[in-house]
Structures are given as C-alpha cells and as structure tokens.
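User: quick one, sequence for these tokens?
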C-alpha cells in the first residue's frame, strides 16, 4: 500500500512539473511587431507591422508542435502598412517561449528540417527540390518574445527574402525576383 502511494505521488508530481511544459506567451494581445518588405528586383519596399489580436491557449498536455504554434490565420492578428492602412495578407506566426528544448523535440517529431538554434533565435531551414527549381525556406523566431523574426524564401528561379536595417525591426518577407 505504501509503495502504491509513493508511485502514485511520483506520477502526479511529474505531470504537474510539465504542465504546459513551462511554455507561455511572451507578448500580450495588442502587441505590435515592426517589419520591412523589399523586392529589390522590382524596386519595391515598404514597412509594415503586425498586431496580435488574440492568443491561443497553450494546452496542458502539449503533444505536437502544431498545438503550440500561433496560427497564421489572420483572425488572430492584423497587419498594417507603416502609414496605418490595412494590409490584406501577410504570412506571420509566433510560438510560445519558456522551454526551447521541448519546442525543439516537438518540432523534430513533426518535421525533417535543418534547425536553427542560437542565443537569440530559434527556427528552421527547409530545402525542397523540384524538377524546375530548388526552394529554400528559412523561418526564425525571436527567443525573447516568440514572434517571427524572419521569413525568407529562396528559389533558384525566384528569391523571396525580407531584411530590414536596425535592431528594432525584424527580418521578414523580402522578395527578390531573379530570372
């Protein structure tokens, strides 16, 4: 009887210790994130920002990377040009922070990518080969707030890459078209 209580106690305490895997959102609803877009081939560049309109709950039992990623559905965020005009569509995402090893394990179980893990960013690089082209997609998230820091897509026929100067803007969506 005593042995059963000890085992039972051990199971309860380990499930409590991993509730939410210590993951949490490091920004609040209404948080704003500045980005820049550039298409150097066509001479197009502009600033924009994303506002978090909602935060999904993080389940107590996180079993896959998909259950913790901030969706790219625009019902959870809004995007605007720097002048305040609404931007109809932009790819944006965020992930919770707090336990990067759990995030890494969940992501590795779902994807076969090359992983990026520095002191300031976490993300991946994915290479896809097609008969007519090779596409490399790089996605990076800030470790301080979990917001997408960079989205870059490079193709040997078309290059998409965002960059922006300064420490206060994020790198996201630069489009460079190469024929």
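Assistant:
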């Amino acid at each position: 009887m005593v042995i059963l209580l000890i085992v039972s106690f051990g199971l309860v305490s380990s499930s409590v210790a991993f509730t939410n895997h210590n993951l949490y959102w490091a920004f609040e609803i209404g948080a704003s994130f500045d980005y820049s877009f550039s298409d150097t081939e066509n001479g197009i560049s502009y600033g924009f920002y994303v506002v978090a309109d909602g935060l999904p709950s993080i389940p107590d039992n996180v079993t896959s990377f998909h259950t913790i990623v901030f969706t790219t559905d625009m019902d959870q965020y809004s995007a605007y040009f720097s002048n305040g005009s609404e931007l109809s569509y932009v790819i944006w995402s965020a992930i919770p922070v707090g336990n990067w090893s759990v995030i890494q394990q969940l992501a590795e179980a779902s994807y076969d990518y090359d992983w990026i893990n520095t002191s300031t960013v976490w993300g991946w690089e994915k290479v896809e080969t097609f008969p007519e082209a090779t596409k490399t997609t790089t996605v990076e998230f800030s470790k301080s707030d979990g917001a997408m820091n960079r989205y870059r897509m490079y193709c040997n026929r078309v290059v998409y890459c965002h960059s922006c100067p300064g420490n206060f803007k994020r790198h996201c969506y630069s489009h460079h078209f190469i024929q």
